Amino acid sequence: MRTPRHDRAATGAPGDLDARRLAAVMHATFFVLLATAVIRYVQRHGGEPRAPWVLALAVVLAVLYVAGRFGDRTGAADLDPGRPTRPRLLWLGTVVAVWVVLVALAPSFAWVAVPLFYVALRHLPPAAAYTLVALLTVFVIGARLQLAPRFDLDLVVGPAAVAGFATAIFVHLRHQAARQRALIDDLVRTRRELAATERREGTLAERQRLAMEIHDTLAQGLSSQQMLLQAAERVWESDRDKARAHVRTAEAVAEHNLAEARRFVHDLAPADLAGGGGLGEALRRLAARESGDTLTVRVHLDDAGRAPELPDRVQSALLRIAQGALANVREHSGARAAALTLTLLDDQAVLDVADDGHGFDPRAPRAASGVRGHGLPAIRARVRQLGGTLTVESAPGEGTVLSAAIPLEPTP
Fold first, then answer.
1. What CA–CA distance (Å, rounded) separates 374 from 26?
2. At a CB cut-off of 8 Å and minimum separation 6, what does 43 contact?
């Protein structure tokens, strides 16, 4: 995982660009002022005995500055590189000492202190940096007064104003960079938290989807097998043929459950849809499997032959809804007949599941209504995931009609 510092570098923050520009300007200013001072000194004092020493010190100062520039591991554009290291302090002290000696020999090199203000402010803590800048300013003022034939207030105010102005600009840029770093850190942290939240939500959604798939396939199939085997056990002594029919039906349900389990492991698509013929044929196969001695299921399609063109997600959802609804009919309603009606409109697909059972009060709590299990909540969740609506109309003694409408275009 990348650190926040790396993330800030990758974003290319405007503060980094400003700092790089300031660093480039200050480095260029140093060499321009140093070269100007050398040329001025050679023109006016080139014949003096100390001239070789002055020029040698100027070369040493330039070499030291370049060595520090390329030996800087904190990043040339970082306005706040952290606590200064001992080598960095030693380098800075050497540069200042060489400059002081050079100015003592040739006061015209005093203005080279301006870029040194930047170096001090960048590499020292604020209190130490301000102190060093003040000392350098005093030294510049002394050098300027030494060169002047008489005292002039401008010689004092000018260097002080330049030092104050340079310090103010640097401090402003440092504060701005700190605010931008804090903002970028917040954005990076928020992005990581959002990614973690999305992963958790994805995990929960997948868990819910798997739970509904298992409920609509394996759990319902096992429940059907249990009911059929119990029915076979009840009539085993009195009617062997009917008992065998129940056992054969349970065997067929087990075979279908096995196919569902294999399909579930492979790609979670309903096995009935893999048999060909689209959703209409899948509903007919489901109705044939659910029909028996106690329940008759009819299928009516009002699709004008468009059912095979439905999106896979819609076909799969409608078939799972039909499976869950018929499981509720078989286990809870006591119905003798049920009907599946698929209607395709221009913008949505509607599946109605009606039965003639004893019904219930949809507004009553589940325990009071006699409805057990998770069938209806699972159907409601599946419809909601696809942006659809679920309507349940029922009353005690009047049967139940469940209507699921799913839009054919994805909705938020």
1. 73
2. none
